[in-house]
């Protein structure tokens, strides 16, 4: 026989099995009194919080469901991914400085996703700051040209155990390296550049730019240099300035673009300025020589010649060493090579706020017309809710 014990809560005596502890009164309704408690699964002894309402549990226990059973582990290479059961078909995709990435299928939203396991996020203060920065920045942005954060989780169940952070993001069909190797015509290349510029514009609206480079506090135009390097690589089919280190990189740049002006060098830190001034002076090459017509789409009709000229002009404005003379994101977006794609809603998309998702869900719930009101099933997979979604609990 299961042992019971009694606890008085207010004017009511609760007599419950000993598996339930720490009873706290929650109130009364027309049908009875309610309390919360902590319990233990009688089959696996996992602790589980018991609030009002039924819970589906482990095999052999139809009442208690523990968080432990919502996760499973998969080994991909040398890395163990412990993920919610909603994510299936895990396949390793690669590793970077910040973590390991796999592709997966989300059975709740029915879409392919990328899951990133951050590398040792709490190994030291620097790693922790990087993890926090990545998580924070991804929550700040919401634009179709920036990979979005869909979910975040940890399989650990207590602060003492907490050591892993997983980020769930949109999965791309190809990466930029693969795209660059494609045979791109002017239409595709200009549209890719437009998408990059829209994404960068959105980051700037959210107050996100690159950090200090060469000891200088650069403005948003630092990002334009990166886009120019990508554009040049699209045209040439290879890296523009293939330096072996930052010194060799600088030499490669000035050999092609020329030594920057004295006004620019005067703004450098003394140690950097001394190095630059002691290097041989280079006149650089014209962009017609650096990017001749033969590198552009081979069709020699008048339209393509015009587009090649426009592309070269844009590139010459992006690849300017002095950021104060470099074209801005706004001006690049209205450049003749790009502006055919211009859309105000894409260019000036408003950054996401912490209240945007709950407000959206609420607006869909509070619709007077029941035929237009969001359904229970759709509400369960809404971005504000679906992190908690469990198929067995929602559809027993």
From TrEMBL:
By what name is this protein known? Stress-activated protein kinase JNK
Protein kinase domain span = 87-385
Compartments where located: Cytoplasm
Superkingdom is: Eukaryota
Q: Which Pfam families match?
A: Pkinase
Tell me the InterPro entries matching this sequence. Answer: Kinase-like_dom_sf, MAPK, MAPK_JNK, Prot_kinase_dom
Q: Which UniProt keywords apply?
A: ATP-binding, Kinase, Magnesium, Nucleotide-binding, Phosphoprotein, Serine/threonine-protein kinase, Transferase
Q: Where are the transmembrane segments?
A: none
Q: Which GO terms describe its cellular component?
A: cytoplasm
Q: Name the predominant localization.
A: cytoplasm
What does this protein's UniProt record list under function?
Responds to activation by environmental stress and pro-inflammatory cytokines by phosphorylating a number of transcription factors, and thus regulates transcriptional activity.
Q: Reaction(s) catalyzed by this protein?
A: L-seryl-[protein] + ATP = O-phospho-L-seryl-[protein] + ADP + H(+); L-threonyl-[protein] + ATP = O-phospho-L-threonyl-[protein] + ADP + H(+)
Q: Name one GO molecular function term.
A: ATP binding
**Enzyme Commission number, as recorded:** 2.7.11.24
What cofactor does this one take? Answer: Mg(2+)
EC class:
transferase
């Amino acid at each position: 026989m299961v042992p019971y014990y009694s606890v008085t809560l207010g004017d009511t005596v609760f007599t419950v099995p000993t598996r339930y502890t720490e009873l706290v009164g929650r109130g009364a309704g027309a049908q009875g009194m309610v309390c919360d408690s902590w319990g233990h699964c009688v089959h696996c002894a996992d602790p589980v919080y018991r609030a009002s309402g039924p819970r589906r549990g482990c095999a052999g226990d139809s009442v208690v469901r523990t968080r432990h059973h919502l996760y499973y582990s998969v080994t991909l290479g040398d890395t163990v991914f412990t993920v919610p059961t909603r994510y299936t078909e895990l396949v390793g995709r690669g590793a970077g400085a910040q973590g390991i990435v796999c592709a997966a299928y989300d059975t709740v939203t029915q879409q392919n996703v990328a899951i990133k396991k951050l590398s040792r996020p709490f190994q030291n203060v620097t790693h922790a700051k990087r993890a926090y920065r990545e998580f924070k920045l991804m929550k700040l942005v919401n634009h179709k040209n920036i990979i979005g954060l869909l979910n975040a989780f940890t399989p650990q169940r207590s602060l003492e155990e907490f050591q892993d952070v997983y980020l769930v993001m949109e999965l791309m069909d190809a990466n930029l390296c693969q795209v660059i190797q494609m045979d791109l015509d002017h239409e595709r290349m200009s549209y890719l550049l437009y998408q990059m510029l829209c994404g960068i514009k959105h980051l700037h609206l959210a107050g996100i730019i690159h950090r200090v480079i060469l000891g200088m506090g650069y403005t948003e135009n630092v990002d334009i240099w990166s886009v120019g390097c990508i554009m040049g690589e699209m045209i040439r089919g290879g890296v523009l300035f293939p330096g072996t280190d930052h010194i060799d990189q600088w030499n490669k740049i000035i050999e092609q673009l020329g030594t920057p002006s004295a006004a620019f060098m005067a703004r450098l830190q003394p140690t950097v300025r001394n190095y630059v001034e002691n290097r041989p002076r280079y006149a650089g090459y014209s962009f017609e020589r650096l990017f001749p017509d033969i590198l552009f789409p081979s069709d020699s009709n008048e339209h393509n010649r015009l587009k090649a000229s426009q592309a070269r002009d844009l590139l010459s404005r992006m690849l300017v060493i002095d950021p104060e003379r470099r074209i801005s994101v706004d001006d690049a977006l209205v450049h003749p090579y790009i502006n055919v794609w211009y859309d105000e809603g894409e260019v000036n998309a408003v950054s996401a706020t912490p209240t945007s998702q709950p407000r959206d869900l609420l607006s869909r719930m509070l619709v007077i017309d029941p035929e237009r009101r969001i359904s229970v099933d759709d509400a369960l997979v809404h971005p504000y809710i679906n992190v908690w979604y469990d198929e067995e609990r929602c559809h027993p």
